[in-house]
Amino acid sequence: MQNQSSPSPSPSPSPSPSPSPPTQHPFFTTIPIPNPKDHKTTLYIILATSLFSLLFFLSSSSTSTSTSASASQIRPDPYLFPTSQTSSDPSPPSIAYLISGSAGDSGRILRLLLATYHPKNQYLLHLDRTAPQSERDGLALSVQSTPIFKAAQNVNVVGKADFAYPKGSSDHKTTLYIILATSLFSLLFFLSSSSTSASASQIRPDPYLFPTSQTSSDPSPPSIAYLISGSAGDSGRILRLLLATYHPKNQYLLHLDRTAPQSERDGLALSVQSTPIFKAAQNVNVVGKADFAYPKGSSGISFTLRGASILLRLSQNWDWFVTLNAADYPLVAQDDLLHILSFLPKSLNFVNHSSYIGWKESRKLRPIIVDPGLYLMEKTGMFYATQKRELPNAFRLFTGSSFSVLSRNFIDFCILGTDNLPRTLLMYFANTPSSLSNYFPTILCNSHKFNRTVINNNLLYATFDKSSYDEPRLLSSSDFEVMIQSGAAFATRFKSDDPVLDRIDREILGRSPGNVVPGGWCLGESGNHTCSVWGDSNVLRPSLGARRLEKRIVELLSNGSSFSVLSRNFIDFCILGTDNLPRTLLMYFANTPSSLSNYFPTILCNSHKFNRTVINNNLLYATFDKSSYDEPRLLSSSDFEVMIQSGAAFATRFKSDDPVLDRIDREILGRSPGNVVPGGWCLGESGNHTCSVWGDSNVLRPSLGARRLEKRIVELLSNGSSFSVLSRNFIDFCILGTDNLPRTLLMYFANTPSSLSNYFPTILCNSHKFNRTVINNNLLYATFDKSSYDEPRLLSSSDFEVMIQSGAAFATRFKSDDPVLDRIDREILGRSPGNVVPGGWCLGESGNHTCSVWGDSNVLRPSLGARRLEKRIVELLSNGTFRSHHCVVE
User: Fold this and answer.
1) pLDDT band at 65 (very low <50, low <70, confident <90, very high)
2) Cβ 39 vs Cβ 33: under 8 Å
3) Do 307 and 227 touch, CB atoms closer than 8 A?
4) Is the backbone peptide bond immediately before 707 cis, with ω within 30 degrees of 0?
5) What gap in Å lies between CA 293 and CA 258, rounded to an integer?
6) Between 334-341 and 544-557, two packed helices, what is the crossing angle to 10 degrees?
7) Could you tell me the pTM of the whole model?
8) Are 166 and 215 in contact (CB under 8 A)?
9) CA atoms within a 13 Å half-sphere pointing along the CA-CB vector of 99
10) What letter would DSSP give residue 475?
11) How far apart are the first and last CA of the chain?
């Protein structure tokens, strides 16, 4: 490999102060609503203060800033309501509320806002299109004129409303639109038209919100590693492509395959080294020892993996990997691309993929080939075997495109070999035609680690003639408008120096011949030398191309929403579209009645990532008339006691200004008319102005409502137990009810003999999360009579030596006060009658009172018992005994 020389960059004038990045609006996690006609506004808070302590590990905080560290303040059982202040409570969570209604509901929305308000939360208010714009404007003005909302800057009103039909599918599409429009859609380009202005007055607000605050700055731009390749005669095209994609934050590796003479390769390297900007940035390298890369063989995979491994060695700081051919060209500037990618998770992979094989099965997957590019120095024809092979059943094949945008994590996975899957597929595809287009899609979609990071689009514009789908047709000036409006980041295939490339340079990239595309890092005067003076490479100046790319990505990421208390991770999953499941179900439920009530449950329970995070209760109190289950009946004062004691956090459905709402305000929430619910953050004097003085929003003051909610959640999370040495994670899994599996098996084993011995093993070995954590030994010594295996036989002094030398940590079964127990106390545990076993934490004098004086409980004093137990565990974990797939069917 030929590297450019590495002198220090020449000094340049001090760059001007970096401009303030544009603001961005936060993601809004929604609390959508169930089915009734006006259900959006009938939902009312019963236990707002309970919600503030929804994670019932939180203590009853006070406004005092100093706490005692005395032993009396040690946290009690976490499943009990805390009765004292603790010293290390976690920081309270934050909830994002979406509160919506129809015409005439602005007052109800304001009341609901006041009832749920906390300065740590985020609120988005929505009046649908049945409401006149004047009502929407009035709602926004009411928010802006309320001092507490104006000060906290956490309440926004949707300005561009939608319809939401409770019986149709537009309900979840509406929620989707709100989430996307206020978070992702606006989070990207519409945050700002440019990063070049440091003036707050020039910050572009979200066009669909009534903003009451400015938000935090843009994230740091990512970096892309480009592998740009070509054949004989392509050095000029490679240089032009390098200039069109150049940005100082990126890494570039240029490759001319073996069809090109060495002189052309040397000339390419000299061109790079003689370009001042590349020489200064030191981020462009040329492969010196070239490879063949047959498009119809498997040598393309070998070349791509080699290029990726070189880029990994050259820099640790890039985030995505892109392979470009000399026939490709960008449709957006790097400032546009980096700007959009900076708002996306760096785990995403943009890859075309399909499990539908069809005609490709016989033409591209079953034939057996030998690619001479893997073992011959000269170019020769491809060798085809006369026989064909069956399709594999150890993994599923996926087809796609040789072009993709791959994450750094995925490249590490493939190159560093953390799994046999990439190596297995590499060997399989070594004899498969056109394997590069199938290799990465098959790894991604067969990997549990990465199959949820794939977006089924590679951001490349290409068109095919109907007569042939082997390669894209050549693009020309007649395709200009269509490919630009497609929103793609790149396009293929172009002829060398086609006039359309000049038009792209001129109208889209703003690039003059022989120069790089100017970006926010260029501080020189306008013209051919704009980038001769450098500024901060983190400063981006997105153009209209970012809007087109943003629109395209939003279309790819569009998914739905539903009623539930939903985690932020799950909302990210749906909005960022890292799985096809939300999109598939969105299309399915588009024509399904009452689809809002089914959409999210279906995603959750069909998703391997989230089906173990569901608690089958939405913390909402609702009752139905026997004659109709279409919508809940109206609640009134006669329901007050029952719904409060239910332990629910919310209730539905209420009439507007029903007297029971006043009673809830008065007796449960402690809220006076027109005011928010006072919490630990309110430091004003008691009365209507309690919250006019603010304290720390992390301070909570839970009331009896927290006890009711805690009791309800504990009931929901209660599951069974079994005999074993079980991990804390597994106990959390069973007790906290993040999967229906423990409950299902609990019900099954309720009527099964000897179910205790079967319950936990069945959960463990049926759980994808825990079946690889099982060691097939419970560290218990027990022996059985040959005549009966129903229960262990009684142990006695004759068993002492055998059970001690077994290395077990426990033993069963003993008679009460059997002499062997006294021998174990005396010879093994060192315990005297009536006392505990002395350990490293005991500092008293030897004898019966050794542990009357305490030391550090972290100090251990292991005895010979530790050696025996260690020997036993080493045997269990040895390769011959322990297997990662221990739950196997024998």
Assistant:
1) very low
2) yes
3) yes
4) no
5) 8
6) 40
7) 0.46
8) no
9) 30
10) B
11) 53
